[in-house]
Design brief:
Layout lengths: L2 H38 L2 H4 L3 E12 L2 E14 L13 E7 L6 E6 L2 E6 L2 E4 L2 H13 L1 H8 L6 E10 L2 E9 L5 E7 L5 E9 L6 E14 L2 E11 L2 E13 L22
Antiparallel strand pairs: 1-2, 1-13, 2-3, 3-4, 4-5, 5-6, 7-8, 8-9, 9-10, 10-11, 11-12, 12-13
């Protein structure tokens, strides 16, 4: 066999091996995420229409506690008539703080967002809306509930490793718009314990690392849900939520995610 022919054969074998390896990683990644979905409750998880989490929330600035409050987070999933379009945000969320929820809340619904206080409703900055959008689209629970049928969604096994003393399987999920998140699954329970993704600062274009840790799972209406959620940004803790109660399929109304008709709309902050 001539040298050029041997080189072509070697190259073909290398490409074939790489293709087989890639297919194996995709198959293993998809299988592990299917096992995760089963561990979370399977069809009961997929049938989750809404959720209410209530407990204590802490915010941090440069690792120092900057705020704490009683918090209630209302989430409602939207169901499109067909497969979801890549990047479509199919959820509404209301974050209420304190004892009087109408006087201290943040609302995200239909591509808009408002900070609600006794003064009225102030539109959220575009940067805050974009951060909420990207955080939601990268969230493993949102992906499993809303994005599994999305065209172009890939799930690839990356490695087996140790994290915080537990064996984990690392799965990289990538969508058609090249969003990517690495999910750490407990090797025994298959429940998500950590996720990592990166985004760009809209002004400086600096790369920002976003990490979320999930723990203290409990069963709620046949669904396993983490009662402790911790978030850090570039290695600094920014948020913690300790749920005392979680309810699923409570039948949340549209009005909860709409501004009151008589509320004053304030000017956005400069």
């Amino acid at each position: 066999m001539k040298k050029a022919g041997r080189m072509r054969l070697v190259l073909a074998l290398v490409l074939l091996a790489a293709s087989a390896s890639g297919q194996g990683r995709e198959e293993r990644g998809r299988r592990l995420m299917e096992e995760t979905l089963t561990a979370l409750g399977g069809e009961r998880f997929r049938a989750m229409r809404d959720r209410v989490e209530s407990g204590r929330a802490y915010s941090f600035y440069r690792e120092e506690l900057s705020g704490l409050a009683r918090a209630t987070i209302y989430t409602r999933y939207l169901n499109p008539p067909g497969p979801p379009a890549p990047g479509a945000l199919l959820v509404r969320e209301r974050q209420s703080f304190g004892n009087n929820e109408d006087r201290g809340a943040v609302l995200f619904a239909d591509g808009q967002g408002y900070q609600i206080s006794f003064r009225g409703a102030r539109p959220l900055p575009a940067e805050t809306l974009e951060r909420f959008r990207e955080t939601t689209l990268h969230n493993v629970f949102y992906i499993l509930r809303q994005r599994l049928e999305e065209p172009g969604l890939l799930m690839e096994w990356r490695a087996s490793d140790l994290w915080e003393g537990q064996r984990v399987e690392l799965i990289e999920i990538t969508d058609a718009d090249n969003r990517s998140v690495t999910v750490y699954l407990n090797a025994l329970t298959r429940l998500p314990v950590r996720q990592v993704f990166y985004r760009r600062d809209p002004k400086t274009r600096r790369r920002i690392e976003e990490v979320t840790v999930f723990s203290k799972y409990r069963e709620v209406s046949g669904v396993q849900w983490p009662f402790v959620i911790e978030r850090s940004r570039d290695g600094e803790k920014v948020f913690e939520m300790y749920s005392e109660r979680v309810e699923i399929n409570r039948g949340l109304s549209d009005e909860l995610f709409l501004l009151p008709a008589n509320i004053k709309i304030l000017k956005p902050l400069p």
